[in-house]
Amino acid sequence: MTSFSIQHQCPQCGAPALLQETDRLMTCRFCKVTSVLMFPGGMRTVLPVCPSAADKPLVYAPYWRYKGIVFTCLDAGVQDRFVDFSVAAIPSVRFPRSVGLRSQALKLRYVPPELPGRFLKPAASKPDMLTALDRTQLRESAAPWHFRTAIGDVQSLLYAPFYLDRKLFDAVLDRAISPVLAEDDEVFGLGGEAPDPSIDFLPALCPTCGWDLRGERDSICLDCPNCQKVWATDRKGFQEIPFGYVKTQGTPDGYLPFWRIQASVGSFRLDTYADVVRAANLPHVPQPVDETIPFRFWAPAFKIQAKRLMHLGRSLTLMQPQWEMATEHARTGHRSVNLPAQEAVETIRLNMAGWITPRQKLLPALAEAQVNALLHELIFVPFVAGPHELTLTDTRISIPNAHISLSGNL
Ligand SMILES: [Zn+2]
Ligand SMILES: [Zn+2]
Question: The pTM is what?
Answer without folding.
Answer: 0.89
